[in-house]
Design a protein that fits this description.
single chain, alpha/beta, four-stranded mixed beta sheet, two-stranded parallel sheet, about 40% helix
Length: about 210
């Protein structure tokens, strides 16, 4: 008995549903991706051979070459609590609306006595026009900021706080300015922190080079 031949038909695939899924996934990744936070000012940190990545949520202290100090509170889960703490501790008398606006600011670079007036300004003041947080010997306000930070993180693993603390200083910044920032941490019993550097290759023949090639 002869075999029955099944007639061949062209196959048509409807790609509409697959395209919809692809665009939905693309939209999800675009909306869910967290962008790198903007830097306060461009600084040129010293170079090092360390390649350890900085944590995504970090507390960044930026020191410019002319000695200005800025603070960025990268942990959004704690930022509002830190601002509330410093508002109460320093009697800044900020209203809930002013605190909400302050919470949206990407960085802090003003002395306490100028914060309330700055929040009444509609436009954001560029970082290069800010005086920075005072850190001189008679008025080191970084001590108060670090106290509020440690108050908010009290009861948590302090090693995580130490890993989050980053200092990024310009290579031309003078050591006394860095020392005043370090003293602010020391007065709050913070003795470990990370220094942000620009990466460079390991010098050939050095101890670290030989250790990595064993």
């Amino acid at each position: 008995m002869p075999k029955v031949k099944i007639p061949r038909k062209s196959t048509t695939i409807d790609m509409t549903a697959m395209c919809d899924v692809a665009f939905l996934l693309l939209s999800f990744f675009i909306l869910a991706t967290k962008q790198k936070p903007p830097e306060v000012l461009t600084v040129s940190p010293p170079a090092s051979v360390s390649a350890k990545a900085a944590p995504e949520k970090s507390i960044l202290i930026t020191l410019t070459k002319d000695g200005k100090v800025f603070l960025m509170l990268g942990d959004d889960t704690k930022k509002a609590d830190i601002l509330n703490n410093i508002n109460a501790a320093k009697s800044l008398n900020l209203s809930p609306a002013e605190l909400a606006k302050w919470n949206k600011a990407p960085f802090i670079g003003l002395p306490f006595n100028q914060i309330k007036s700055s929040l009444s300004i509609a436009r954001e003041i560029p970082a290069n026009q800010l005086p920075g947080i005072p850190t001189d010997s008679t008025n080191n306000e970084m001590v108060d900021w670090m106290r509020s930070i440690t108050n908010v993180y009290a009861g948590t693993d302090q090693r995580k706080l130490q890993e989050m603390l980053l200092i990024k200083g310009d290579n031309d910044a003078l050591y006394p300015a860095f020392k005043r920032v370090k003293d602010a941490l020391k007065k709050n019993e913070i003795f470990k922190f990370r220094i942000v550097t620009s990466g460079e290759g390991i010098p050939a023949g050095s101890e670290l080079y030989l250790k990595g090639n064993k």
